[in-house]
Amino acid sequence: MECSKKSFSAAVEKVILVFLLFTTVCLFSLPIIVYYISDMFVPATVNSNDGTNYNETFPERNCSTIPVQWSKVNASLSCYEYAGSICEAFLTQWSECAAMREGSSVHVGVTEEKQMEHENTLKKLNDFIGQLNLESCAQVALPFLCQYMFPLSDCSTGTSYSATRDDCIMISERVCADVWDLGLRVGYDLPNCDELPKANVALSTNLSTSNESITNNITCRDDFVKTNVICEPRCDRFEQSSHTETQIMIGSEVTAASIALLLSIVTIILSIKDHKMMFKYPSILILFQVIDIIILASIIIITAAGRDYLYCSSVSLLETLDNPTLFCKYGGALFHYSLINLVLWWFCNVAIFFHKILFPFQANRFERLGRNKYILATVIVVSMLVPLPAVIVGLTVKKVQYNLNRFPPQMCATSSEMWFYSNILPTDLFLGAGIFMLIIALWSIRKKSKIYKSTQLSTAEKKIILIFTSVSVFSLFSLGYVSSVIARVPAFEAALTQYFECEAFGHDPEKCSRSTFEKMYSPYMSAVAYFLIGLVSLTILNFVIKWQKMRTGGRTIVRNVSKVLLIKTNETSV
């Protein structure tokens, strides 16, 4: 009977172990799954065929102006039937003038897939310009953009007609200068005039008669600034959350960072005093984690001290996003590097602990043969080099460079896709593998303790397990929080762009809503994440402190003080 109970108990334990390992794999697969299905959270692109009558946008054209406002190219060009609606009336009229229509179709040199992308862009641009109620700008800009995005193509002769540099310069620098500048800043794919061909003859006077600037009397919000005649968000004032939530978030981050920094400094001081133990393998890996925490906490505190000066290269937030400051780029790179390093040191320490528990004879043999110093050197080199490629890419490639990702800024990060592959994914893999090994190691310890009737763990090992646990909790929480934020980045960016466009032409509380992007970051979740860094620092400090010595020293101090007080009491009574 007793034997069957033991067999049943052993079977249950194995099932629990398998369940824990399976749960770990599932848990650390979630961030990856969430990222790859995040496309469903992106707002659907606007269908250009929405019933809007775009014919009214385009004025009647004189066929004699074709060779003036278009550049004729006698070169072989692919022909695709135009399948859109925005430029249909305009392209139809021009193709008839050029006698290029085949049947009832208009052909352009752009694939159908690309046509749909251009249709969505033109729809947004049309709405964008329409907010100005500036007819002269719309009448020249939209035909030009149709020319640029859908160059007419004669399938039989290989002749195509494309937009010209002259028109581009006239529109971008004169007629629609303010709108063009804002469009570039909010990310619209507008042409580079220098790359376009010159007109076949001198530019007609059609455009030169229209040089109307945007002179509407507009009023900007308090956190926007008027540049020329357009409202742009202020780098030093714009807050994506309510002011109260922003202050809670900043205050909690600074408080948590200060606590973590203070505990880490005390840890370094005590480690120097006990350098014989702390500066040897594998304890030194814990000190490397402390250094990373000091770097992370210092960046947060320095940011709070001079946020506007350090992160704003211009009064305009849009200009700042185009030209991030040196502190933004290099501070973000250091923050990025330290985050990955922190997890790497933890993973290596867990792997060493795992090896020691599951392969004790081999671990002792390595120590006797002096191989630990080679293992330490390898761990240091690998851990220092692994984060470098992603950091270098973030510093050198403009498309994914370190830039502001929160307003007000706290630290700069790479683009959301780059951040996933260079931070979230490696952190997820290292953390998942580490916890997997930790579960197996602790399970092995439990099995051995049953056999030998002993815990098999020293006080130092118990403290190390506490460090492992605190880093795991911090990393798990941060990983889940940041993963959820990354999944919403496309929707956030689209909503923020739409809001900036709305506010650009003056504040209208009924039209311009902040509700679509305010809840991107939770101040309370952010506060918890940073206070967990302090918990990691506290567990590391606990590892360094020799509590037995402190208790002995405390008793000695109490006895000495008691003796002094007793002597003084006797002297007073005498």
Give your account of this protein's structure:
- 65% of the residues lie in helices and 5% in strands.
- With 574 residues, it is mainly alpha-helical.
- Strand 6 and strand 7 (230-233) form a beta hairpin.
- It starts with a helix and ends with a helix.
- This is FZ domain-containing protein.
- Residues in helices, as a percent range: 55-70%
Radius of gyration, in angstroms, nearest whole number: 33 Å
Task: Tell me what portion of residues adopts beta-strand conformation.
Answer: under 5%
Residue windows where pLDDT falls under 50 for at least 5 positions: 41-56, 64-68, 201-216
Largest sheet geometry: 3 strands, antiparallel
The average pLDDT is 78
Concise summary:
This protein has 574 residues and is mostly helical.
Keywords:
single chain; 574 residues; mainly alpha; 3-stranded antiparallel beta sheet; 22 helices; 65% helix; elongated; transmembrane; Frizzled_dom; membrane
Detail the topology: elements first, then pairings.
Elements: H1 2-36, H2 66-69, E1 71-74, E2 80-81, H3 88-97, E3 107-108, H4 112-130, H5 135-149, E4 152-153, E5 159-162, H6 165-175, H7 177-185, H8 205-208, E6 224-227, E7 230-233, H9 243-273, H10 275-278, H11 283-305, H12 307-311, H13 317-322, H14 326-358, H15 360-369, H16 372-385, H17 388-396, E8 403-404, E9 412-413, H18 416-452, H19 459-487, H20 489-503, H21 523-544, H22 547-573
Antiparallel strand pairs: 1-5, 2-3, 4-5, 6-7, 8-9
Helix pairs in contact: 1-18, 1-19, 4-5, 5-6, 6-7, 9-11, 9-21, 11-14, 14-15, 14-16, 14-17, 14-18, 18-19, 19-21
Keywords: Disulfide bond, Membrane, Transmembrane, Transmembrane helix
Protein name: FZ domain-containing protein
Transmembrane segments: 15-37, 254-272, 284-305, 334-354, 374-398, 418-443, 464-487, 524-545
